[in-house]
Structures are given as structure tokens and as C-alpha cells.
Specification:
It comes from Mariniphaga sediminis. The protein is an alpha+beta fold and about 350 residues long. The protein contains 15 helices and 13 strands.
Length: about 350
């Protein structure tokens, strides 16, 4: 393996090329977790990896509870397969809670207050129906909780980490929460060592080739735990050293020449955000064009696994306008493939497409 092989192998392992996975639940389960703070874009992140999927396919999986959006890595919003929620939270939540203690102290959120908040939040779902964020905030305020400094957001996050609530189906474009125990009565659990091995195995299978530093970044685990996880599964993977970096990848990969590919990847897509070192897929001179100084990951145009530009969409009732901006002028073949990628996105949304090109 050489450095130019890395993005091409990642395209396959991340199911962007050659995917045979048939459902959102199986896809998210294969990936482990998929970053999801941009709710509309993550639907495309899942959909572009599922042949024939539409936005309705993804929304049905959310409505049916096959996949759940919650905070469980680093922490930020991620989609996770319902079967994996409990064991993954048990593994990652303790470290996240510990990292939040200082901020909670500043806000006056003691263990006693958090326990009371959790009880109130749980009781809010007595009728079994999803509740919007606004409705939950009102219930907390009625119980005497103050919401200065966005305290409610911290209490909701803690309730997620405690496995009490998760994101539910949308209601008239408003996000909702659901009670986890009410919706999902049976979930897998593992010993800590088993969970460490499963998380590492999942990451390196679906995201490899990747380094231990990449896994530490993606998982948010303490360094010691991440290294222990790696030792548990190391013999199951091939190690390849390039320069000073050691990459792990699956044993069953063949290094064959791939035909030229163009993809429109969404904002915060796993293809970029799940690695600490992104140099295999984006030149240093282009990083600030695709990733802002404050950590905003823009939608990117991938050409053979390398970021070649950015794109944005404007969704209208009957069509979607796709505007592409390449870092350098693309040839005719790349333009044609970009237009086809834009059409695929429009088909996913069930709309017509208008394609525009602009320059930096």
C-alpha cells in the first residue's frame, strides 16, 4: 500500500464505492456511528452509501427507530444503529461526563440537580409520545429549573449520556426526543473489554486504512483505552507503515486500479471528519477552503477520493440547485461525472436538478 491507495481503499470500506448494504440500519451499524449535527446532510451521508435509497428511506428508518441520533462520541450528534446504542454509551459516556464536570460546576449543575432533571425528563414521557425540545424546556422551567446559559442543553445532553432520551422523529420540522427504555426494551450489552474491541474492530473495518491517532480522535476515548482497544483487535488486521505512520486495514482488501469516480459528499461526512490526519484526501493548501478555522466541514467534491472542490445546495419545492466550486478547472470527464453526481443527489431528494458552476 502507498499513500495514494489510502483514499481509494477508504472509499470502498466506507461503502461509497461498491456498496452492497441494503438498509440504513445495517449501513450505520457497519460504520459504527456517523456524525450528524447537520440533520439534513447526514441523511445524504447515509443515502449515498445505499444503492437506490431516497430521503424517504432514511426518514422511515428514523421513524421506525432503526437508527437513533444522539450524543455518544466526542461528544457531538451521531447516528447509531439502535442495537448498538446501549453498549456504546456504556463505553463512551463515563469519559464524556468526566470532561463536562468543570462546565457543570460553572453552571451550578450538581449531581443532585442532574438526578432531579433526569427524573423530570423521564416522567414527561408518561404517555409514550415524542416531545419537542421546546416542550421539554417548558417542563423543566415549570419544575423550577433556570435556563440561563443554555442550562437545558446540558441537562438534555446528560440525559442522553445516561441513556434516558434520544432523538426521535421530526414533527413539522421540529426535532423531538423519545424515551429510550420505552422504545427499545432490548439492547446489546458487552463487558468493557468486549466493547473496546468491538468499537475498534468496527472503526478499522469501516474506516481503514487508519491510524491509532485517527481512532482516538473519532472515538473520543482516553488514549489508554484506545490503545487497549487496538491491542485487542490488532491481530485481525494488516499493519502498513508509510513514513512515520502505521495504518491498520482489513486483510481481505485487494489493491486494484479503480476507474475515475466523482462524489458529492455532504457536510461533516465521515470520509473526512473521522480522521485526525486528513492529508491522504485533501491537500494542505485546500484544507481551509473545505474546513473552516472554527471546525465547520463544508460539503466537498471528491474526485478519486481527493477533495477537488466544494458544493452547496438550495432546495426549492420542485428542484434543487447545486452549485459547484472546483479548486482548479476540471476536465470534461470530471464535469460530466459531477453532473451525474448532482443528478443522483436530486433523485435522492425526489426533485429536479439545476447545476451551476462558480470559481474561487
Amino acid at each position: 500500500m502507498n499513500h495514494t491507495d489510502i483514499p481509494k481503499i477508504r472509499l470502498r470500506n466506507q461503502q461509497i464505492t461498491g456498496s452492497h448494504i441494503s438498509s440504513p440500519k445495517k449501513l450505520v451499524g457497519w460504520m459504527g456511528a456517523m456524525q450528524a449535527q447537520d440533520y439534513e446532510m447526514v441523511k445524504w451521508a447515509i443515502g449515498m452509501r445505499l444503492p437506490g435509497a431516497t430521503v424517504n428511506t432514511i426518514e422511515r428508518a428514523i421513524e421506525d427507530g432503526d437508527i437513533i441520533r444522539t450524543h455518544l462520541l466526542r461528544p457531538t450528534w451521531h447516528f447509531v444503529a439502535a442495537d448498538d446504542l446501549r453498549w456504546m454509551l456504556e463505553l463512551t459516556a463515563p469519559h464524556i461526563k468526566s470532561s463536562m464536570q468543570s462546565r457543570h460546576k460553572q453552571l451550578g449543575l450538581t449531581d443532585k440537580i442532574i438526578a432531579k432533571s433526569n427524573r423530570i425528563i423521564r416522567d414527561c414521557f408518561s404517555n409514550g409520545q415524542p416531545l419537542t425540545r421546546k416542550e421539554l424546556v417548558k417542563e423543566l422551567e415549570n419544575a423550577g429549573f433556570r435556563n440561563e446559559d443554555n442550562r437545558a442543553a446540558h441537562l438534555f445532553l446528560r440525559a442522553e449520556l445516561d441513556g434516558i432520551i434520544g432523538s426521535g422523529p421530526s414533527q413539522k420540522k421540529h426535532h423531538t426526543y423519545i424515551l429510550i427504555d420505552e422504545r427499545f426494551r432490548q439492547m446489546k450489552t458487552f463487558s468493557r473489554e468486549e466493547a473496546l474491541g468491538k468499537l475498534a474492530r468496527t472503526y478499522f473495518s469501516s474506516h481503514g486504512p487508519a491510524t491509532i491517532e485517527d481512532f482516538i480522535w473519532w472515538s473520543g476515548l482516553p488514549v489508554k483505552d484506545a490503545r487497549n482497544a487496538l491491542e485487542i483487535i490488532r491481530k485481525e488486521f494488516i499493519s502498513e507503515t508509510i513514513g512515520s505512520q502505521t495504518f491498520l486495514l482489513s486483510e481481505n482488501l485487494s489493491f486494484k486500479k479503480e476507474k475515475s469516480t466523482v462524489f458529492l459528499n455532504p457536510a461533516y461526512d465521515e470520509f473526512l471528519i473521522s480522521y485526525k490526519d486528513r492529508s491522504a484526501s485533501i491537500k494542505e493548501t485546500n484544507q481551509r477552503k473545505a474546513i473552516s478555522n472554527n471546525g465547520i466541514f463544508r460539503p466537498v467534491i471528491l474526485v478519486n477520493g481527493e477533495v477537488a472542490g466544494i458544493w452547496k445546495r438550495t432546495v426549492q419545492p420542485s428542484k434543487v440547485i447545486i452549485e459547484t466550486t472546483f479548486f482548479k478547472k476540471p476536465d470534461h470527464n470530471i464535469k460530466e461525472q459531477t453532473q451525474e453526481a448532482a443528478r443522483q443527489f436530486a433523485v435522492f431528494l425526489g426533485k429536479e436538478v439545476e447545476i451551476r458552476h462558480s470559481k474561487f
